[in-house]
C-alpha cells in the first residue's frame, strides 16, 4: 500500500519522517519530492479559454447606471441636454468603477493572496503494508499534513 501526503516545508515534515522511522518504516520506503510552486503572477484579464470567476465590470456597470441617472437629470439644465450628459456621465461612472475593480484585484487581493494560503511544497510517499496504513495515516495527520491519500497496490 502507498500513502501520499503533502506538506509545507516545515519542521513537522522532519518530525513525521523521524516518527515513521521510529515506528519501523525503512528509509527506503519513504520518498519525499519537492514541488515547484507557481512563480508567475496570475493574469488579471480573462480570455475565451480561461476565466477565474472574477469580474472587472460589475462595479463599473452599477456606477454607470447611477451616474447616467444623475447626469441625465442634471442635463435638463445644461446646454447639451439630458441624453448627452447621461451618456457622458455613464461613461465616467463605468470608467471609475472599472478602475476601482482593477485596483482591488491588483493591490488588495494580491496582498491577501500572499498573506493567506498554505502551499504544498513537498509530497511524501510511503510504501507500507496494509496493516500499517492506519498508523501511518494518523502519524501524518498528527504532524500537520495538508492532505493524505491511500492507494492499494498489488
UniProtKB/TrEMBL annotation:
Sorted keywords for this record are:
Membrane, Transmembrane, Transmembrane helix
Q: Which domain of life is it from?
A: Bacteria
Membrane-spanning segments: 56-76, 82-108
Q: What is this protein called?
A: Uncharacterized protein
Q: Which organism is it from?
A: Bacillus suaedaesalsae
Q: What is the lineage of its organism?
A: Bacteria, Bacillati, Bacillota, Bacilli, Bacillales
Amino acid at each position: 500500500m502507498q500513502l501520499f501526503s503533502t506538506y509545507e516545508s516545515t519542521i513537522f515534515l522532519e518530525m513525521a519522517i523521524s516518527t515513521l522511522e521510529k515506528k519501523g518504516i525503512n528509509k527506503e520506503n519513504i520518498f519525499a519530492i519537492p514541488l515547484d510552486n507557481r512563480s508567475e503572477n496570475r493574469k488579471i484579464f480573462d480570455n475565451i479559454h480561461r476565466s477565474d470567476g472574477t469580474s472587472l465590470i460589475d462595479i463599473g456597470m452599477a456606477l454607470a447606471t447611477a451616474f447616467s441617472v444623475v447626469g441625465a437629470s442634471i442635463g435638463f439644465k445644461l446646454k447639451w441636454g439630458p441624453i448627452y450628459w447621461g451618456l457622458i456621465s455613464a461613461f465616467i461612472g463605468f470608467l471609475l468603477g472599472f478602475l476601482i475593480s482593477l485596483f482591488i484585484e491588483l493591490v488588495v487581493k494580491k496582498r491577501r493572496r500572499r498573506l493567506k494560503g498554505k502551499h504544498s511544497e513537498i509530497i511524501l510517499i510511503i510504501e507500507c503494508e496494509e496493516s500499517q496504513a492506519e498508523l501511518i495515516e494518523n502519524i501524518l495527520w498528527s504532524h500537520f499534513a495538508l492532505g493524505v491519500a491511500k492507494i492499494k497496490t498489488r
